[in-house]
Design brief:
transmembrane, 10 helices, mainly alpha
Length: 243
């Protein structure tokens, strides 16, 4: 993440100095900074005494909720702009984002256990994480899928007005190489984000629901899921914003 931030400093200065600071840009920088705090505290909490579990867990869940909702909000705003002339679709996407928000809030209902961790006696542990975390991660994955399909279908509607056989136009569209710069950025970058989201999100869900694994190993992929989706989502935003 540090490498990615250093590598994109020029673009981020351009976002600040050469463009108006609008709500999507504010959401972008919140999304950019929150994972550092979340991941740092996740590693720091490995050494926390059991008496600190309640505060530490609230802190981790709060920043997890901010991160997942800011990623989803960026893509909701992008999809909303594409469907600017379809109010029903905008409302539908807003309802889906509300479900993502509600799913992330469910994590607050997972209470830290008073039992010591079997893996590390000084570390905190939790109960009932499978159901709540699966719902939270699942709603985000469903949201990403719907937004990706909706944006792809909208771009295909625009692209199909070109001349030529339908099959040929479809193949050209799926390749994305001959699309206009803005559309190519939306489609191909969206493909990459959805691929990362699908692979890391589904892997995280599978690990979380395996009851035979110790809890520490069931949640071990969550920081990686947050890191990868954050980097790609921010990259997509910069590409679209800066053209």
């Amino acid at each position: 993440m540090i490498y990615d931030m250093l590598n994109s400093l020029e673009d981020e200065f351009e976002l600040i100095l050469k463009h108006k600071i609008k709500p999507p840009t504010v959401v972008y920088f919140i999304e950019r900074l929150v994972p550092f705090t979340y991941i740092f505290y996740t590693f720091y909490s490995l050494g926390l005494n059991i008496n600190d579990c309640h505060f530490g867990y609230f802190f981790v869940v709060a920043f997890f909720a901010i991160e997942t909702n800011s990623v989803a909000l960026l893509f909701f705003l992008r999809a909303r702009a594409i469907f600017y002339d379809v109010p029903r679709m905008q409302k539908f996407l807003a309802c889906l984002w509300a479900l993502v928000f509600g799913g992330s809030i469910l994590n607050f209902f997972v209470v830290p256990s008073s039992d010591r961790s079997l893996v590390e006696p000084k570390a905190c542990t939790r109960d009932n994480i499978g159901f709540y975390s699966t719902v939270s991660l699942g709603t985000l994955l469903v949201f990403d899928t719907v937004v990706y399909v909706a944006i792809s279908y909208r771009l295909f509607q625009i692209f199909r007005s070109r001349d030529g056989p339908v099959l040929q136009r479809t193949c050209i569209f799926l390749d994305g190489a001959t699309l206009p710069t803005f559309s190519r950025s939306l489609f191909r970058d969206g493909q990459l984000y959805y691929l990362v989201s699908l692979l890391t999100g589904s892997t995280t869900i599978v690990l979380v629901v395996i009851p035979s694994l110790q809890l520490q190993y069931r949640v071990i992929f969550i920081p990686l899921h947050i890191t990868f989706t954050n980097i790609i989502a921010c990259w997509v935003f910069r590409n679209v914003k800066l053209g």
